């Protein structure tokens, strides 16, 4: 019997090798199969959450939000009436002597109020939609926000483009607004011009 460790010759009855002292009854370890991979534990593959599907805000939801935003500026219209009525009464009471003055006061007052409404509406929409809220009060109440085409917050410049684009939407018999009911991504004309989306938050 030969020792599998040192190769020394031993008697068939020997239990230990006379050369190295190792056991002659131990079976040699089977060699690893060629090409077999070592059983190394691997960490589980990370599970990535699937992005939520984008849900576009429909026409009627946007329409209700527009009404709510209009109510924000309702007090300014009451101011116009409060100015117009006294001026009209002054013209009637003073006759021709105050007719020119009343007309001038009325014209100046209407111009100032008109500019105030325009400036207020402009700053309200552009600053709110480009802020971290991404929405006006009406849109916030309906749970919708304004984003760019990648779903990110829009800049103040893009918000300006969207605001003035609404003039075009309104000038063509409000068809630009109605487009939100038929376009694939529920975009009105001013959304398309400014590269914006209105989506559910």
Description of the molecule:
The mean pLDDT is 81. The protein starts with 58 loop residues before the first helix and ends with a strand. Strands 1-2 form a two-stranded antiparallel sheet. The protein has one domain (59-200). The protein contains seven helices and two strands, in the order ααααβαααβ. With 201 residues, the chain is mainly alpha-helical.
Summarize the topology.
Blueprint: H1 59-72, H2 74-94, H3 96-129, H4 137-142, E1 144-148, H5 156-171, H6 175-178, H7 189-194, E2 196-200
Antiparallel strand pairs: 1-2
Concise description?
By secondary structure, this protein is mainly α. The chain is built from 7 helices and 2 strands. Helix content is 50%, strand content 5%.
Key descriptive features of the protein:
2 strands; two-stranded antiparallel sheet; mainly alpha; single chain; 201 residues; rod-shaped; 5% strand; 7 helices
Q: With helices defined by DSSP (H or I, 4 residues minimum), what is the helix count?
A: 7
Low-pLDDT regions: none
The ordered string of helix (H) and strand (E) elements is HHHHEHHHE
- Number of beta strands: 2
Rg for CA atoms:
41 Å
Quote the beta fraction: under 5%
Summarize the biggest pleated sheet: 2 strands, antiparallel
End-to-end distance, in Å? 83 Å
> Oligomer, anyone?
single chain
- Provide the residue-averaged pLDDT: 81
**What topology, given as strand order, has the largest sheet?**
1-2
Q: What's the overall geometry?
A: rod-shaped
Give the helix proportion (percent range). Answer: 40-55%
Give the number of domains.
1
Helix/strand-derived category reads mainly alpha
